[in-house]
Each structure stands twice: as structure tokens, then as C-alpha cells.
Amino acid sequence: MTGGVRLRPLTVVEEGDEALVGDPATGTFVSMPAVGGVVISALLRGASEEEAAAEAEAFAGEPVDLPSFVAALAELGFLDDRPDGDRPDGDRPGDDRPGDDRPGGDRPDVERQAVRTAPIQMRRWMAGVSRRVARPFFGRAAWACYLALALFCLAVFVAAPSLFPSPAQDAFLFDDVGLSVLLLMPFVLVSTALHEGGHWLAARAIGLRSRFGVDRRMMLLVLETDLSQLWTVPRRLRYGPLLGGIAVDVVVLSLLLAARLLIRQGVWSPAPAVDATLAVWVFVKLAGLLWQCMVFLRTDLYAVLVNALGCRDLWRVKTLMLRQAFGRLTPAQKAELVAAGPADVRAGRWFRWVWLAGFAGVLAWFVFFVLPVVVAALAWTADRLVLGPFEPRFWYALLCAALLLGPYVLALFLAVREHVRR
């Protein structure tokens, strides 16, 4: 063996007996034995194949089949196969690591597209805010404030139960149900954008990039932030970006409740429309926060759970173990389960039943927060559709119903498309 192996700008994170190796530009990450991380780290430093093999042998205590390992890296797309003339000056492996504040650290990779993690998704990673600007919002003092605000929200709901939202009333800003529905959708979109922006800003606080997409959770359409690049940093640094959305939700909810509390105490006397608007926002934010608490879905707290338990693919292992429990495991799936990580298997033993029971939780959430709004809107729509297509109110009601039900129809479409692709 002579010469060196040119790798893409890979990252290597040591995690016990394993190394997590990946290409941040494409969002491709794999777990491998620690000796693989030793080889890749050596190659990233510019070591020759002989030097990398020697380091690996010293680490493992036995010879390493480096050619086979390099061939595996090629299959993963981790080799830099660009001609020398196509590599810009300074474009060496390791120059564009996430978390690096040097100029060029957020330069998009134009050679390969990022792996798609949602049916509808941005193609490139997004930066925009420097690590220095974002960091104060997610330091220890900031998290202490977020915790205090969360406790404040709980205290307000306990001390003033009337401020807890009543969806059948608080979701509608005006007596005109149609107009209220038209306004509710922008409220939901802005609320969701603030939440996802929290993830993005928290990722920037540790120097990572992210991107936004649209996916579904069961029968609901959701916006999501792709935080794949969290795998490039140690586990303890991942909690901030994972909880960044909830932190923003807590701040907004506490401000809304404080304003409503001032109105209830007579300290502030705004127009009734202002209090009604605040009530809509409280309803929207609380619904979103409680949704994120459903660990049996791929929500923020599920991601926190996976990170805390050291799992790699708990969602897939959960599915395999459920099939095993009901006698529907194929030979190929059995082999896949045998090869699963120990942490995933340990967690999967109980998480599969949590996931099953979670259907009741989702149904309860849907019945309390969504169903009253949908029923009221559909009843209002039906009263106007009977007027016929020659009446302007017919088309107005149809438009409002389409805006309200559109996300659910799109979620159903994505579910069908996912099933067909499988």
C-alpha cells in the first residue's frame, strides 16, 4: 500500500467501544467499531495507508484489513473522488467541520445532495446566524430561565384554571367561524415556525447547520427541523438543539399567560379582541407543547430519550420487536434484529408497548384539541354549502373548510405515497 486515501470532510465522534462517523454535508452517519474511527482519523490527518494501518494495528492489537475497510468507505460515499483540479484550495478533509466558526465552515457542499429525511425538504443546510450570536440564548443561565418559565406556566394553570384553553371557544377569534379558521391557520404556521426556529437557533449555538422539511405524524402534518448534524458532536451537546423548540414554546406561552393573567387581575384592560387573540395563541402553543411530550412518536422528547439511552435506531427496533411479539417477524427481519445495537434492544423491550399505548394518547390529544375545532368548522360549513354554488357564502365556506382540512389531506397523501414506496 502506498499513498493516501482522500476522504470527504468526515467527522468522528467516539462513543464507548464505537465510533460515529459521518459526512455532515450529506447527513450520512454510520456507527462502527472504534478501530474504524482510528483509521479514519489518521487518514483525515493526511496519513498514508501504511501509517493508518499501523495505528489501527497498535490500537486493536492485531492486523487490520485496510483495503476492505477503504472499499466499505467507498460504498458509503465517504471517499473524495473529485479530481485534484476540482478541489478548491484549502478543501482538505476536516476543513468544514460543523461547529467550526472559521470562514467557510458553513459553505454548502455542491458535489452531493443531502440525504432526504422528510417527504418535502430543503436541499441545502441553513446557517445565517453565527455561533457567537446564538450561544447566549442556550447557555446555562438561559436554560435556568426556561425552566423557571415552564414552572410559571404550570403554576398559572393550577392557580387560574379558567386560563386553560377550551378549544371549542378559544380556537375561534370571531363569531364568524370561517374568518376564525382563516386566521387560525396562520397562527398555527407562525407558532410552528417559531418552534422549528428554536431548534435551528440552538443548533447554531453549537455551530451546526440544519434544514427544514414537511413530514407527518400519524394523521397529522408537521413541520420539522433536520438535525442530522447533531451526530457530529458528543452526546452531551445534543440536548440543546433537541430542546430548543420547546424552549421557545415555553417562552412564548409564559408571555401569553402573563398577559392574560394581567387582564384577569384588572391590571391591564385592552380591547376584548386582544384577550381573544391571546386565548387563541395559548390554545395553539399548549397544543404544540403537549404534542412534543408524546415520546411514543418521533417528537422532540423522543429524540431526547433516544440520545439519553444511547440508541441508534430505536424506532426501527421497536417495529421489529413488535412484529416478533405478534409472530410476524420474517427471517430477514430476525437477522436485522439480531444485529441491532444492545441499547436499542434494551429500550425496545419496553418502548414497543409504550408506542402501542401511545395511540390512546394521540387519540385523547386529537379529541381535546382538534376535534372540537373541526366539528364546529364543519357544522358551520354545512350550513352554507346547502345554499348552493350560486351563493357567495357557499364558496367562502368551501375555501375555509379546504384550508382547515388541507393539512390532514396532505398527511393522508404522504402516508399513501410512503406505503406505495415501501
TrEMBL record:
| UniProt keyword Lyase present | no
Instruction: List membrane-spanning regions.
Output: 141-160, 172-194, 242-263, 278-297, 353-382, 394-416
Q: Does the keyword Metal-binding apply?
A: no
Protein name per its UniProtKB record: Peptide zinc metalloprotease protein
Q: Which UniProt keywords apply?
A: Membrane, Transmembrane, Transmembrane helix
Renumbered to this chain, region (Disordered) spans 79-113
Organism, scientific name:
Nonomuraea coxensis DSM 45129
